[in-house]
Amino acid sequence: MWKWIQAFASPQNFYYTAKKIIPWFLYPFIALSLVGLYWGLVIAPVDYQQGESYRIMFIHVPSAWMSMFIYLVLAISGGIGLIWQIKLANVVAKVSAPIGAAFTFLALVTGAVWGKPMWGTWWVWDARLTSELILLFLYLAYMSLNNAFDNPKTASKASSILAIVGLINLPVIHYSVNWWNTLHQGASVSSIEKISQPAIHSDMLIPLVIMGIAFKLLYGALMLMRARDELLIREQNSRWVKGVIMEGEK
After folding, report:
1. Measured between alpha carbons, how far is 167 from 178 in angstroms, rounded to an integer?
2. What confidence tens digit (pLDDT) does each residue in 192-204 have?
3. Residue 47 pairs with which residues in a beta bridge?
4. Who contacts 149 (Cβ-Cβ below 8 Å, separation ≥6)?
5. How far is residue 178's CA from residue 245's CA, in Å, rounded to a whole number?
6. Which of 11, 175, 202, 245 has its CA 20 to 30 A from that of 128?
7. Cα of 111 vs its chain's centroid, Å
8. pTM > 0.90: yes or no
């Protein structure tokens, strides 16, 4: 198993393997997104309290999930690169940051759009919103620090330490609605006590889960695409990259 992981972690092997894997992420993402959006926007019933405005949650909630999931991947990858000096781990961490920042920004924007009719304002310094905003700043700080050094090893080391320290913000985001008195709606999915009596209607829960899976597939596709490009830059003087350029393969 370890030998297989080492072989896959080889920049050359990863480059060619990723090309084969990307369609398996991209096409299911498109299919699931169409199903999830149609189900959530058309089939799902109107919420008895929020009316039609609740439907933005089919974008907002999966985006918020992804903002935390990708940061976790980033920090773990950075830690692996920091401890075991695996090039590919540092690459995954670096290319994940802009994708995670985009999902975090989308979560904040859609949350603001939902908050305007619900709370009467675009923004409040709510514990969940504030900690999510801090997550966006962590992503931006990671990217800035990663680009602040000419030496990729130094950049990866410094930014990975920042990412690992920033992990403390993830439980704050997740449990903020329980720890403090906030305006933000409490957990609907994780508060399911019984399968037969979920806290959210199945016609709302199913498309929400579908969109969550779709967004993870999108991240997988985008991460692999960006990682391939990053590897070409980092390994530009290696023989296999020169071979790729000669073949016109990318």
Report:
1. 19
2. 444 445 567 789 9
3. 51
4. 155, 158
5. 54
6. 202
7. 17
8. yes
